[in-house]
Amino acid sequence: MNSINVRPAEENDAKDIFTWHNDEVTRKMSHSMNTVDWDPHLKWYISALSNPNSCLLICYLTKTEEKVGIVRFTVENNLALTSINIAPNMRGQGLAKLCLSNSISFFRRKYIKITELEAEIKSTNWASRRAFEDVGFVLNHTKDDVGYFTLYLS
Description:
Layout: E1 4-8, H1 14-21, H2 24-29, H3 38-50, E2 54-61, E3 67-76, E4 79-86, H4 96-110, E5 116-122, H5 126-134, E6 138-143, E7 146-152
Parallel strand pairs: 4-5
Antiparallel strand pairs: 1-2, 2-3, 3-4, 5-7, 6-7
């Protein structure tokens, strides 16, 4: 079984995240299905790394340190919008649940005042939905083919 570790994203992860984001399957499952150019991506990424309301976490295999994906938390008041993007070469291995679970644990230690996590998942993204539900997110409602999920932290 694979073991997953989590660490804060760093500047040198920008290219991997850019590549993962522009992957065709990733774009089909995202709210915005457009490709992203490098310069706007890098500007957003550097800004996100220094933003105290943004937490970007890289998940990686413990044994090989190969990157598995990124989990992103965007903090607003007492909640954080949560998303995940698994590297294309790592999909289908059941790693999303481990990434989410370990990332949520890491996030909770840093952002102790957050009481709720939310996720917006396209109705066609069954893999993401399953991973979020497996770590405790519950579907609140669906609108325009997007499911709105919540995990209450205690």
